[in-house]
Amino acid sequence: MPTRALAARMGTTASVPERVLCIELCGALQGLEGTYFRKDSHGFMRVMDSCSLSQAQRVTVESALSIANLYIEVARVSPDRPNDLLAKAFLLESQTILEEYVHDVGDVPVNCRPLTVLRILSAMETWRDRLTTLQRLYKLRNDSGTRLMESIYAVYSSVRECYVVDKVLTCCAGVLCRSISRWMSGFELSECDSQMIATDPAQGYRLVWIPPFFPKWIAEYILKIGKSWRSVDLRRSSENLDKARAIIASQLDSKCLYLQSQRYKLEHVVREVCRLVCGSVVHSFVVDHHLLNHFDAAHCLLLLHDAQFSLALYRQFCECTHGLRSKLSQRDASNALIAAAASSTTAQRLNFPLNLDALSSVNDTPNTSSRLQFVQPLRPVYRPKGPISDIFRSTENKYESLFHFIWPLEMSLLSISEHANAVRQTAARMSRSSAKEFVKSLRLTSALLSCCERVLLRIRVYAAEVVDQFFKRLRLWIDDAIDLDAVVESHNNYLDGLSSAFFLNNETEDIYGLIMSILQISHELSKHCLEIITETESAQQMNGNDGSSAHARNTYLFVTQAKLQKILLELHSRINDLNKQQSNSMLMILLSILE
């Protein structure tokens, strides 16, 4: 008798009925205590000493209890994460998996007949891997939802199926899919619970997280679509918007977000919805808000591509400054711009009002000897009304710099033209008895003015050609634009291209300086022109022969001639070198002009 009891304790003889043991083991797999299985101080299931099992039974039961303890360890974690939808989805889906485990344990007595310990273990062995995977994922439960999703996707494999990872990832992707669907369907960001997109007053809507399972361009398309809803005309574009919502509702699901085999569905959805929603915005801007006409107005007025406007503005300046002899006040500059805009043929051609403003510093024009004193204080700003204004608001400084390049050319050309005519008229009135030195001064002055006029006129032709070519490119870029961001980018590229062609960047600032030097010489010649004419006419009336004055004047003109020749040679050489580096068609135009 003692020998038999010892054998039972050592596990060589079973004393517990098989069916009773199996029923209690099923309860233990669900975390329920019984006669033979109890929880220890750590809450894990253990075999009671009173449970006499054979060696084979004990090994099988211990193996089954290890599955039960995995379940207990995972199930004891609270699923409460209300503030992070992705983390909450992960925990709730984990609870669903645990409920499936409990349900499968409950079905064991029905499905495994006759009921044995070995059959129970075989039926539940699949759950060992599942609970082990879930236990490992649970270690990440305190991470943010986005970090958690990245980690889950890192262990996901599209080749080898993993039940737990697939279910959890599908659930989390479902939350993300609902958020993306609402955002692309025109809901406000606060209604979307978006993990990808945030907004702030400074930067507006922006991407803060890109899911690891699709490329950046898809995330950018999603952002563009939602942003475009804020600009689209709901009444005019209702048909396209309804189509877009129908596509999202019928074709976008969680699996197409992360399954590589279904990536084509996601790409098709974002492209088609972008075409419908963003394309409606671009169409509305071009057709309803006359976008290209606004660009045309800006490049005609602010870049002074309107001869009538240029002439009217120059005459207003001359009137306000007594022939460009006095300083130009802020009020006079504003009035001059307004009056010139009113006489513009462009303003009469376009079917919407043109707004042109002039902003300068509080002080009057700086007291300098350069004609640029009438340009630098001016800041023409094109401010159309409506949604178009947002496109121009961020580019005011670029338009200003372009204005400050072209308007000095216009002023110098108009001024030189006036003074050249005056010199020719004076020369025609002079008698043959006039002093040779004065005649020589007039001829040399006329030659220098003509040279400056030809050079500046050809640079002006180059500028006009550059503007025309880039404006044609802008129209093509707008035709290809798929959304408002592409329109804004096209506009910026257009202005950047003009700035580069006008040598307003750091790499070509020396060329810009040479052109400004030519303008300065033109200004000085125009300034001295009236003095020469006055002296010549006085000498003719008095029949005098102030040779020393004329000689000094001629010396100045010869020095100016040498300076101008040097600048032109240096300008040609520098542009030629730049053309060899860039092989730019625009530079070829300028080189042919300077030849």
TrEMBL record:
Q: Which GO terms describe its cellular component?
A: gamma-tubulin complex; microtubule; spindle pole
One Pfam assignment: GCP_C_terminal
Report the PANTHER family cross-referenced here. GAMMA TUBULIN COMPLEX PROTEIN (PTHR19302), GAMMA-TUBULIN COMPLEX COMPONENT 3 (PTHR19302:SF14)
Question: What GO MF terms are annotated?
Answer: gamma-tubulin binding; microtubule minus-end binding
Q: Does the keyword Ion transport apply?
A: no
Question: Which compartments does it reside in?
Answer: Cytoplasm, Cytoskeleton
Instruction: Tell me which InterPro entries the record gives.
Output: GCP, GCP_C, GCP_C_sf, GCP_N
What's in the keyword line of the UniProt record? Cytoplasm, Cytoskeleton, Microtubule
In what residue span(s) does the Gamma tubulin complex component C-terminal domain sit? 291-591
- Record protein name field: Gamma-tubulin complex component
Family membership = Belongs to the TUBGCP family.
Q: Which positions are tagged coiled coil?
A: none
Q: Name one GO biological process term.
A: mitotic cell cycle
List, for all copies, the residue spans of the domain called Gamma tubulin complex component protein N-terminal.
25-285
Per the UniProt entry, the signal peptide is none
